[in-house]
Specification:
The protein has 318 residues and is α/β, with parallel strands linked by helices. The protein contains 11 helices and 8 strands. α4 packs antiparallel against α5.
């Protein structure tokens, strides 16, 4: 039976919004974990990735504090551990709803951090995990991203950009001067100088992320209010913990672990991935490089990404 439903479900004390689409409920479930934290991606998945419905039931989720999952949130209480428990609850809901023992999970950027922590703590209902824009170490991540951006601006003779970057960095333990505002200065300039996406070109966060949300038709007015409120609040609340996070201490996994990473990524720099990956012990592991991609190879090289996603996940029962 086909499914196309946007609903709010109870998740650890608050109602949180999901959108599930399926051509056939018997297909394996694939849950997307969005990035940020606080940057919802329902619109992107339902706009660009409906071709995956030939293989999967697709589930997208607005995480606690953003989009359709803002009501009743205590932003001061947001932690990585709390979001991991929310993810566990969503996985269990989907397993029960679609009568599955296990489902697939895919996470990009912050979603790769969340997914990695999820499979460490709650592997029992996850058939395999795919990370892209893979997070490894917050402190090293921000230093590398900052240096890339500064060097690119300097090489371009962009004195104004250099001054802005000098005013907010270099980051200390993943944190920029001015907190959220400082990080946004770095991210906007990093995107301007091509460190985020090669296919998107040199776009600001507004052009690359916010405008596509508005044009997609995916979100209700209340969802948009949640996005506007949640994006900054969630990032501000969680960034100190994320900046201090080091996933390299996690090397033992009970779940097949695949990384699809853009070689040109300077948002979560790709050079941090391979050393950690080589230390991982899992029932199955694979690192696949996308040589023409930045932070999101699912958008930079979509045909290859989704072809490999189908092929690789078909190995595992779900």
């Amino acid at each position: 039976m086909a499914v196309n439903v946007k609903i709010k479900i109870p998740v650890n004390g608050i109602m949180q919004k999901i959108h599930v689409i399926s051509k056939n409920e018997s297909l394996p479930v694939l849950l997307f974990l969005h990035g940020g934290p606080g940057i919802v991606n329902r619109h992107s998945i339902v706009t660009h990735d409906k071709d995956l419905l030939d293989t999967f039931t697709i589930a997208t989720w607005d995480q606690r504090g953003t989009g359709g999952s803002c009501s009743g949130v205590d932003y001061n209480a947001l932690t990585i551990d709390l979001l991991v428990e929310d993810a566990r609850a969503v996985v269990e809901y989907l397993c029960e709803k679609f009568r599955k023992e296990k489902i697939f999970v895919i996470g990009g950027s912050w979603g790769s951090l969340l997914g990695t922590r999820l499979i460490c703590k709650h592997p029992e209902h996850i058939a395999a995990f795919v990370g892209f824009g893979q997070f490894v170490n917050g402190e090293k991540n921000e230093l590398l991203s900052y240096r890339y951006t500064y060097d690119a601006a300097k090489a371009a003779g962009d004195e104004e950009a250099c001054r802005k970057l000098e005013s907010v960095g270099p980051p200390v333990k993943g944190m920029y001067k001015g907190g959220y505002a400082g990080m946004k200065v770095q991210r906007d300039l990093m995107m301007k100088y091509g460190g985020y996406s090669k296919s998107e070109g040199k776009k600001s966060y507004m052009d690359a992320i916010i405008k596509p949300m508005i044009l997609s038709g995916e979100y209700s007015l209340s969802d948009f209010i949640g996005v506007a409120i949640g994006y900054k609040k969630v990032l501000t609340a969680m960034w100190p913990e994320i900046g201090a996070e080091d996933l390299s201490v996690y090397t033992e996994f009970k779940v097949p672990f695949l990384i699809f990473d853009g070689k040109l990524d300077m948002n979560t720099p790709s050079e941090l991935v391979e050393d950690w990956f080589n230390k991982i012990d899992a029932p199955y592991k694979e690192l696949i490089w996308f040589e023409k991609s930045g932070h999101n190879p699912m958008r930079d090289e979509p045909e290859r990404f989704k072809k490999l996603l189908r092929e690789k996940l078909s190995q595992f029962p779900a």
